[in-house]
């Protein structure tokens, strides 16, 4: 079967070097040509699959063990993905068994690292360990005491408040799968909160976003996060009042 | 107290706002807020009860406190008793039937619009099927003007949305030129800036103004910065055509956006004073969306659709050129899937039009919503039939700055073709003169267009 040739792509193609927007994709009649239509569908499929991906707890636990810290398995109050998407309030709170589990680990510490599936467990699978490989040596070299690493299923950012508080940590660092976009379904976000406790809101946190192979690299991300953690300890706060004095953090 | 019996079961609704919440077609945001009906029967019981509520009750029972909320005060203090007198004897249910009757035409609707409160309009929409919402909206015609004429029957416009993750001027310009060559941009060429810095916004405004002047494009441009940034730039002499702001339906929700009525009034007057419009002086561009009040923890127990319509009371005070409900952007905790997004969009479009607003819809979804391009095709087609003033035009549907999917340049071409709709007349004339479309609206091959030489 002979396919229609999309019209008049060439003269506009030169504009594509200026943007990653889907410009100059041609048309058949009034429609998007099939090739570009299927490319779009594939990108959306990757994003959808990422939203429904699950943490591989066994694999992650095995890999995280080499940091020499206990690894905890925790869950939010959410029971399934459909509920997760509709009830962010439940994704922000630990369920009872998880809260009880924290009781065994209330030794005072500086930083609690909390790895959360969020909206893309794929992002955690691809990037969490790589980032921690770059970050944990920086924290330890600076004499910071680390709490056990938490692996959290069906969690939102604010669940780090329950966990950091429960672990008696001075600062919580949440690594969470960000909402997948069409251009990337594996972006990891890092949120840090000084003096975490239940009931805080987003203005208490600082965020480093788009951590992935083709985005913000592990080394750069680790440097930014390390800078923010040091500033937070120095000034005993985090969030909107924690400014970027080193020019390291893009607004 | 409102009540209704079904068989031997008594349904009680303590007040109007509870009744409105329970009567709302199901959506995740009302569930999240704990406001929706407990089951199918209770929802219909609430709708039956709501149908019997006299419209006059809405003037005596505010859903958000008059003392605490300036939008409630706006609604009550500026209510037009004379316009209301035509319908003041009706109940909500009777209003639905009256609206749909053949005798009620566009002129009648325009006459009574100032007599309707947002809560009356929200209430009647809850008694309507999607078909009713479409049929009614199709009766309304709301026409606005700046450098062209938007909203005429048989016409359908687009906002060209050339966003770029770093506001790179060449990247933005590339998307604008691509869009113009697809016949997009008659509602506005409007950029969501990645940063709200006045200098960056000013650069984008100048870029668009030069392009518009050079090619004598009969349209308007806008950078969707915060209203305080726009106000500052107006005062500094930047080429501001339209003043943009996101608004919501309660004073507290607007406070979370950093705005209030007097600030909007100040920016409105400042933008008007520039007198940059050539065929009219509608200078405001508002965006809204169901769920914004709840998301700001400022809904006061009012369902998200009623909160949304209250935002339209704010909009209509400032005679906007464009009002855009960004329906699917907020995410699945407010509108879970394609069905809920489609319903919400048709409600917003109808309610806005009935209140006399030039409604457009950002037909859109995020990747964590249970929706895809097929849902958007359905919604776009329904809105075309309903007479929607404008939708977005985004390269390949993919906004690379805001990370969501909206309608493409192609989508607008599709709708114009299947429903025989035309762009704004002044813009259509320009497209023909530029050799982009022919007299019948068909796209012409673009080989070496002058717009490409803009680079």
What fraction strand of chain B? 5-15%
| Second CATH tier, the architecture of the largest domain in chain B | Alpha-Beta Barrel
CATH topology (level 3) name of the largest domain in chain B: TIM Barrel
Q: Which descriptor suits the 3D outline of chain B?
A: globular
Structural class by SSE content of chain B: alpha/beta
**CATH superfamily descriptor of chain A:** Ethanolamine ammonia-lyase light chain (EutC)
Q: Poorly predicted ranges of chain A (pLDDT <50, ≥5 residues)?
A: none
CATH T-level fold name of chain A: Rossmann fold
**CATH homologous superfamily placement of the largest domain in chain B:** Aldolase class I
Largest sheet of chain B: 4 strands, parallel
Q: How many strands, which pairing sense, and closed or not: the largest β-sheet of chain A?
A: 6 strands, mixed
What is the CA–CA distance across the termini of chain B? 66 Å
- Tell me the number of structural domains of chain A: 1
Overall helicity of chain A: 25-40%
Spans of chain B of at least 5 consecutive residues whose pLDDT stays below 50 are none
Strand order of the largest sheet of chain A: 1-3-2-4-5-6
Greatest chain-chain interface?
A-B, 42 and 50 residues
Averaged pLDDT of chain B? 96
Helix and strand element order of chain A: HHHEHHHEHEHEEEH
């Amino acid at each position: 079967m002979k396919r229609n040739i999309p019209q008049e792509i060439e003269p506009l193609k030169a504009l594509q070097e200026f943007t990653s927007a889907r410009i100059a994709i041609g048309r058949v009649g009034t429609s998007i040509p099939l090739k570009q239509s299927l490319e779009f569908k594939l990108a959306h499929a990757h994003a959808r699959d990422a939203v429904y991906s699950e943490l591989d707890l066994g694999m992650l636990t095995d890999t995280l063990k080499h940091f020499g810290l206990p690894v905890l398995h925790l869950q939010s109050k959410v029971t399934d993905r459909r509920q997760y998407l509709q009830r962010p309030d439940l994704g922000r709170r630990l369920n009872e068994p998880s809260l009880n589990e924290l009781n065994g680990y209330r030794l005072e510490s500086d930083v609690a690292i909390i790895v959360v599936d969020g909206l893309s467990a794929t992002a955690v699978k691809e990037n969490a360990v790589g980032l921690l490989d770059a970050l944990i040596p920086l924290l330890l070299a600076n004499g910071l005491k680390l709490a056990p690493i938490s692996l959290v299923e069906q969690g939102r950012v604010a669940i780090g408040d329950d966990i950091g508080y429960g672990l008696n940590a001075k600062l919580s660092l949440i690594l969470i799968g960000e909402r997948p976009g069409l251009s990337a379904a594996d972006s990891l976000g890092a949120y840090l909160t000084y003096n975490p406790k239940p009931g805080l809101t987003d203005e208490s946190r600082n965020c480093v976003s788009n951590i992935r192979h083709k985005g913000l690299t592990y080394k750069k991300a680790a440097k930014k996060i390390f800078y923010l953690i040091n500033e937070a300890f120095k000034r005993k706060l985090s969030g909107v009042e924690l400014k970027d004095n080193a020019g390291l953090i893009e607004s | 107290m409102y009540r209704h019996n079904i068989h031997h079961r008594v349904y009680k609704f303590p007040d109007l706002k509870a009744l409105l919440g329970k009567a709302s077609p199901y959506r995740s945001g009302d569930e999240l807020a704990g406001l929706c009906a407990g089951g199918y029967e209770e929802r219909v019981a609430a709708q039956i009860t709501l149908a019997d509520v006299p419209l006059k009750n809405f003037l005596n029972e505010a859903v958000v406190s008059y003392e605490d909320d300036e939008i409630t005060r706006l609604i009550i203090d500026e209510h037009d008793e004379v316009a209301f007198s035509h319908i003041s004897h009706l109940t909500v249910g009777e209003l639905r039937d009256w609206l749909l009757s053949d005798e009620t035409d566009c002129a009648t609707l325009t006459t009574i619009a100032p007599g309707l409160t947002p809560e009356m309009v929200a209430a009647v929409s809850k008694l309507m099927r999607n078909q009713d919402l479409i049929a009614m909206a199709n009766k309304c015609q709301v026409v606005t003007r700046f450098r062209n004429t938007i909203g005429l029957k048989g016409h359908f416009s687009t906002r060209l949305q050339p966003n770029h993750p770093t506001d790179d001027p060449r990247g933005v310009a590339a998307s604008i030129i691509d869009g113009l060559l697809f016949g997009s941009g008659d509602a506005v060429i409007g950029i969501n800036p990645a940063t709200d810095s006045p200098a960056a916004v000013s650069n984008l405004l100048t870029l668009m103004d030069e392009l518009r002047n050079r090619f004598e494009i009969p349209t308007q441009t806008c950078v969707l910065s915060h209203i305080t940034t726009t106000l500052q730039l107006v005062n500094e002499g930047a080429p501001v055509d339209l003043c943009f702001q996101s608004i919501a339906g309660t004073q507290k929700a607007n406070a979370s956006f950093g705005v209030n009525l007097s600030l909007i009034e100040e920016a409105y007057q400042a933008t008007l004073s520039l007198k940059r419009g050539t065929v009219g002086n509608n200078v405001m561009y508002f965006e809204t969306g169901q769920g914004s009040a709840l998301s700001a923890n400022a809904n006061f127990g009012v369902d998200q659709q009623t909160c949304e319509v209250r935002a339209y009371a704010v909009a209509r005070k400032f005679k906007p050129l464009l009002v855009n409900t960004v329906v699917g952007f907020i995410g699945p905790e407010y509108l879970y899937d394609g069905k809920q997004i489609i319903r919400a969009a048709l409600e917003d479009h109808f309610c806005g039009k009935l209140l006399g607003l030039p409604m457009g819809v950002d037909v859109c979804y995020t990747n964590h919503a249970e929706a895809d391009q097929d849902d958007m095709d359905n919604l776009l087609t329904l809105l075309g039939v309903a007479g929607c003033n404008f939708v977005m035009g985004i390269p390949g549907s993919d906004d690379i700055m805001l990370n969501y999917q909206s309608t493409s340049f192609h989508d607008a071409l599709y709708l114009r073709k299947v429903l025989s709709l035309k762009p704004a007349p002044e813009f259509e004339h320009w497209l023909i003169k530029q050799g982009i479309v022919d007299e019948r609206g068909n796209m012409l091959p673009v080989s070496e267009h002058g717009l490409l030489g803009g680079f």
